Fold this protein.
Amino acid sequence: MNFRPYMALILCWLLLGAFLRVQQLPGQWLADDEWHAIHVLQATQGYGALLGYVGVADVSTPLVLYFRLWAEGAGLDEVRMRLPSVLSGLFLLVMAAPAAWRRYGATTACIFTGLLALSPMLIYYSRSSRPYAIALLLAWVALAAAIRWRAAPHALSALTYLSCATIASWMHSSVLPFVGAPLVWIAIEQWRSRSPAAGGTLLLGLLTLVPVAALTLWPMWRNRSVLAERMGGDLPTIETLAGVAHMWTSAAYVPVVAIWLGLAAIGAWQLIRARDEWLLFGAVGLAATLLSVLMLQPSWVHFPLTAARYHLAGLPLLLLCIACGATWLSSRWRFAGMALAALPLLALAGGSTLELVERPNQFSQHSWYQFDVRPSSLIRRELGPIPQSPFWKSLAAYPPKSLTLVVAGHQFESFTVNDVRWQRIHKQRVLAGQRNGLCGNPPYLGEGNRSRGVQLRNAVDLADDGQLRAARADYIVFNLTIWQQYQQETLDLQRCIDSIEKRYGPPVWQDADVVAFKLSGES
């Protein structure tokens, strides 16, 4: 077999996967759960308080500690927040390609690498400041170490498993069953066969349990009353599982999902016949994760997105089965190998990945793209009917990215940020207008406080003329739509509008949805 075409295609997948994970990254707004860590960081004093923090809003303790280091040093911005996830996503690609080649051959490695590179969920979490991409990488490294330990107990395998399993669980407790169950399985297997390695496996498990208990389980137990507010509320349904299948296969329509799952079933059968350890222990970990979700019933798990990310460690296993199934098919038709090696391109057609690379697009973390890959997405249904002011279309007359708009009137939830649709119309750069007391109220959720070291690249304090000048802002725009839709005292925009009018004169555009002030040039 001539391996050069496969090596070249794998390299193309790696480069494309890297591009999709870093493209336009500095300009991306924070969205949804990314704000939880900022809120905790700004409201909590000292590293000790952060170390044991467990709240109703889910945060990753090691990431918040990492954020605090930046906030007290050079300053915390969106790129620094997302850097660990970006590096983890890239390393997963680089690590998976040669590992799959050695174990499953060139064709499977090529298809598997492409599927990993183009998976919308893996791209999304590799660009997020949340812990999922980091926990995913560490969980699979821990699984690899457990498999090596099973084959030949060695100190390096034990240390790798202990450290990666501990940090992965600390990053996000949802991966604890995935990394713990395989070691339990190995211990039982060795005990039943009366293997002398059983004692070492038991000792490794106990040594791992100590730091996991100290860093993850004890803070959860100490704050169990708070944690209880996030548990016991929801269960996944058949519709949830269907949604997860759509998200994991990046397919919007049922027939395409069926094709992907059919390939996965063929691949799984081939791996079962080969007694493949990756399938066995990955499936054991995934089953343990599902069981823990059914027992704890975490909030919002009935939404496909929430269920999909709680079980995210199982996604590479599904993609591996698809790759093995495609390889089996290629062996049945001559010259089909390279054709099926390009199979991952179908992932681009099924999800929202192509929309993300539109320029400019500063909202790749928005739930418009991530909540569901199906056209009937709840978020798209909700945001679809929201009116669009003619003001946005008027800005399209200018060259793309020639204007800077400072838009205010959001909350931190992305479903209140309609700019995800408006930017596709006007093609201009958009910054978040932070009110920070300008409206006569305290700072809002969804705003960074520079005095606490949060120096967001894509946000400007409306009360600070120096920041507006430094950002070269052309317009300040108040989005009235969300204000009208979600009437709250903390969204008293009229005070902000009056304050801006005193400083910059009357608005140049005003309708039922938008009030816009021009800061430079001719009106």
Q: What stands out?
A: The chain has 27 helices and six strands.
